[in-house]
Amino acid sequence: MSILRFLGLSSTESEKVSSAETQTVRKIVASLDAMPSERARFVASFAYILCRVARTDLHISDEEAAAMERIVIEKAGLTEDQAIVVLQIAKTQELLFGSTENFLVTREFNKLATREQKIALIDCLFAVSAADESISTAEDNEIVRICAELQLPREEVVEARGRYRKYLEVLKKIPVTEA
Q: Distance (Å, rounded) from C-alpha 143 to C-alpha 122?
């Protein structure tokens, strides 16, 4: 810290921008804090599970990140700024604690969500996986695992998977033969 800044005689543009960004973040966090507790837990677990599938291949592509942001805005009713904060927290938590938290977070979502919300989540998971135009076998298997953790019948995964069939990596490798 410079002596001029310490004495309040110097204020750089970057300090002003940083202060404005801090205020923006505080407003977003305050708006998330104002959510009812059950709603906040629902949104947090929803975002975490999206990140869980996106990171199955150990990387979240820009396309997957954009898809998650769009989905959280549409399905969870958050603003863009709120969605960014929620997803960043979910990504960090999944990265740090994924192997131990995956089942626990999905179990929490299972308690909070209706059957329709669980089915919608499965569709969202395929949408995130397909965002980069390829659903890997690992991503597909993770979605099947999540469906089981949500106590949904396998038919729900099969139905949702059918809507994203053209993106399944395993089917792209099958050679097309002329009849």
A: 7
The number of residues making up the chain comes to: 179
pLDDT per position as a tens digit, 131-161: 999 999 999 999 999 999 999 999 999 999 9
- 51: domain CATH number is 1.10.3680.10
Residue with tokens 């994203």: 164
**Long-range contacts, 106-109 (Cβ 8 Å, 24+):** 106/45, 106/49, 106/52, 106/146, 106/149, 106/150, 107/149, 108/41, 108/45, 109/42, 109/45, 109/46, 109/49, 109/150
- Is 135 within the bounds of a domain? yes
